[in-house]
Amino acid sequence: MTVKELNEYLESADYPSRFKFIQAFVFKWEVVASRAGTILIENDPADPGGATFAGLDRRSHPDLNFKKINPKAVCDTYLEKYWAKFDCEAYPYSLGEAFYNCCVNCGLGRAKKIIAKEVKDSAAFLDAQEDFYNRLAESKPRLKKFLGGWENRTAALRKYLDN
Questions:
Q1: Is the Cβ–Cβ distance between 143 and 80 less than 8 Å?
Q2: Which of 35, 71, 111, 123 has the most CB atoms around it within 10 Å of its CB?
Q3: Which region, left, alpha or beta, applies to residue 146 given φ > 0 means left and ψ of -120 to 50 means alpha?
Q4: pLDDT of the chain, 163 residues: tens digit per residue
Q5: Angle of helix 17-30 relative to helix 95-106, nearest 10 degrees?
Q6: Rounded distance, CA 54 to CA 30, Å?
Q7: What's the pTM value of the predicted model, to 2 decimals?
């Protein structure tokens, strides 16, 4: 599967517009591809999720066959296992998108802890998420190599949500 096929499917599918909007952002940060555009299976030993395809990790999605998965299955997994399951649409615009991105990147447990701090908007949510990333990198030195990427993703999400 290629990045182009994945993005074309997302755009053409009958998904909620907010989901399509934030999922396009998530794909920019989660999908790793070859120069030819073929999506690669990542397997960084420092990543606690294990092997990952298009941002879907083996630990959270043990039943997915990364070698035979299609664009519909990838998008449906994100919609069903994250967006709909965690009721992201129920949050106001931009807060729901920030919450969703956190569910994908950090897990529902962390996203719930952040939202429980009674954050009222995406800026406060993203501030709290950045604080978590910094504490995580300090407490687990093997994850420090991811900190710059996490910070860049958060900064990019702030801009994306402002547009």
A1: no
A2: 111
A3: alpha
A4: 999 999 999 999 999 999 999 999 999 999 999 999 999 999 988 888 889 999 999 999 999 999 999 999 999 999 999 999 999 999 999 999 999 999 999 888 899 999 988 788 999 999 999 999 999 999 999 889 999 999 999 999 999 998 6
A5: 40
A6: 6
A7: 0.91
Strand partners, 53: 41, 56
Is-contact 20 11, C-beta < 8 A? yes
- E-assigned strands of the chain? 41-42, 52-53, 56-57
Q: Do 147 and 133 touch, CB atoms closer than 8 A?
A: yes
Contacting residues for 6 by C-beta, under 8 A, at least 6 apart: 27, 31, 39, 54, 71, 74, 75
**DSSP assignment of 33-46:** B-TT-BBPEE--TT
